TrEMBL record:
Belongs to the CoA-transferase III family. The keyword Transferase applies. It comes from the Eukaryota. GO terms for cellular component: mitochondrion. This is Acyl CoA transferase. Keywords: Transferase. InterPro entries: CoA-transferase_III_domain, CoA-Trfase_fam_III, CoA-Trfase_III_dom3_sf, CoA-Trfase_III_dom_1_sf. The lineage of its organism: Eukaryota, Fungi, Dikarya, Basidiomycota, Agaricomycotina.
Length: 361
C-alpha cells in the first residue's frame, strides 16, 4: 500500500525575505514556527487541518508530490487524467511531500525515524487502520513520548460505528441536518458552504449552482430514494464505485461500462447513471440497504430525523447527550440586588439611599 506522507516544517523564515503579509501575522511571529508536523492525511478534512497548522505566506512550498496509492488502485497514476486535482492543490499548499510504501519494513523504519524529532502527527484513517503499519498511538508514543497524535475520524474512535468511513454529507444525513433542510414534503437538502461558494467566484469567476444533495464533480455522491425513504451514498472514488456496484447493487457490468468506469465519465453521464442507481435502490427499504452497505467500506447514511439522531447507537455509545442539573433557577430581575451590594460593602442604610435616589430598583 503506497501512501502519501507530507512533512510540514514551519521553520522560522529569514526576516530579509520580502513577501505578502497576511493580517497582523509577521514573518517571525507565526505561532507554530519551528514545529515539525508529520501529515498522513488524505482527501480534504485532514489535509485542510494540517494546512492551517503551517499557513503562512512564508511557509515551505510544495516542491513535488506523487500519487499516494499503488498503481493497482483506481486512484493511482493514470496517463489519461490530469496529474493534479483541485482538491489536492487547495489543501496542500506550503507543504513538502514524499511517497512511501508503508507495507515495506524499510519504509516503516524511515517513518519511525522521522517521528523521533516530530512535534505533531496527524492522520485521518479509519480507527485501527494504521496499527498494521506501526503508526498507531501506542507505537509512536513509545518512539516519541512528547508527540502530539491527532486523529480525524467520521464517527469518533469508539462506538459501533467507529470504523465506518464518513464524509461531511454522510454525517449531515446521519445527524438529521438533511432531514430538517429543504421544502416541506420535499427531498432532503444538504447545507451549502458560503465560504466555498465565495472562493469559487473570487478565484475563477464561477457562479454557484443548485445541486441539491449532489456533488458537482463526483458521481454517485448524493441522496437516493429507497423503497420507504432516503439514503445518502457517497462513492468518492473509482474504488468505492466498484465496491458499490459489485458488493451492494449487484451491477458488476457498470464497472466496465465506459460511461461509468471512471469518475470523469460518471460526471459526464450523471443523468444516465443516477436514475439507474435510483431504480435499484427503490427496490428495497432503507434499513435493508443499511444492512447491505454496513461493513463494505463505503461512506453512506440513512436520512435520520432528529429523534433517530439522538437515539442512534453511535450517539449513545459516545455519550453525545448528557443531562445536567441547573443548580440555581434563573433569577427574578433585581432578586439579589441587596445581597450583591452588601457583598460589595454597602450598608443597609446606603442601599436604601440608592433605592430612594432611583439608582437601583
Amino acid at each position: 500500500m503506497l501512501l502519501r506522507l507530507t512533512a510540514l516544517r514551519s521553520a522560522r523564515p529569514s526576516l530579509s525575505r520580502a513577501s505578502f503579509r497576511a493580517l497582523s501575522t509577521t514573518q517571525a511571529d507565526r505561532p507554530l514556527a519551528g514545529i515539525k508536523v508529520v501529515d498522513l492525511t488524505r482527501v480534504l478534512a485532514g489535509p485542510t487541518a494540517t494546512m492551517f497548522l503551517i499557513e503562512s505566506p512564508t511557509g515551505d512550498d510544495t516542491r513535488s508530490w506523487a500519487p499516494p496509492t499503488a498503481p493497482k488502485n483506481e486512484n493511482g497514476p493514470r496517463p489519461d487524467l490530469p496529474a493534479e486535482s483541485a482538491y489536492f492543490l487547495q489543501a496542500n499548499r506550503n507543504k513538502r511531500s514524499i511517497v512511501m510504501n508503508l507495507r515495506a519494513k524499510e519504509a516503516q523504519d524511515a517513518m519511525h525515524k522521522m517521528i523521533k524529532d516530530a512535534d505533531v502527527f496527524v492522520e485521518n484513517y479509519v480507527p485501527g487502520k494504521l496499527a498494521k503499519f506501526g503508526l498507531d498511538w501506542e507505537t509512536l508514543h513509545k518512539i516519541n513520548p512528547r508527540l502530539i497524535y491527532c486523529s480525524v475520524t467520521g464517527y469518533g474512535s469508539t462506538g459501533p460505528y467507529a470504523k465506518n468511513p464518513g464524509y461531511d454529507v454522510v454525517i449531515e444525513a446521519e445527524a438529521g441536518l438533511m432531514h430538517i433542510t429543504g421544502e416541506r414534503g420535499g427531498t432532503p437538502v444538504k447545507i451549502a458552504s458560503l465560504a466555498n461558494i465565495g472562493s469559487n467566484y473570487l478565484i475563477g469567476g464561477q457562479e454557484a449552482s443548485r445541486w441539491g444533495t449532489a456533488h458537482p464533480s463526483i458521481v454517485p455522491y448524493q441522496v437516493f430514494p429507497t423503497g420507504d425513504g432516503w439514503i445518502m451514498v457517497a462513492a468518492g472514488n473509482d474504488g468505492q464505485f466498484k465496491l458499490l456496484c459489485n458488493n451492494v447493487l449487484d451491477k458488476p457490468e457498470w464497472v466496465t461500462d465506459e460511461r461509468f468506469a471512471v469518475n470523469a465519465a460518471r460526471v459526464k453521464n450523471r443523468d444516465t447513471l443516477v436514475p439507474l442507481i435510483s431504480e435499484v435502490l427503490k427496490q428495497k427499504s432503507t434499513q435493508d440497504w443499511v444492512e447491505k452497505l454496513t461493513g463494505k467500506g463505503l461512506p453512506f447514511a440513512p436520512i435520520n430525523n432528529i429523534g433517530q439522531t439522538f437515539n442512534h447507537p453511535q450517539a449513545k455509545a459516545r455519550g453525545v447527550v448528557e443531562e445536567v442539573e441547573a443548580y440555581r433557577p434563573p433569577p427574578y430581575l433585581g432578586e439579589h440586588t441587596e445581597e450583591v451590594l452588601k457583598e460589595a460593602g454597602y450598608t443597609p442604610e446606603q442601599i436604601e439611599d440608592l433605592r430612594k435616589n432611583g439608582a437601583i430598583a
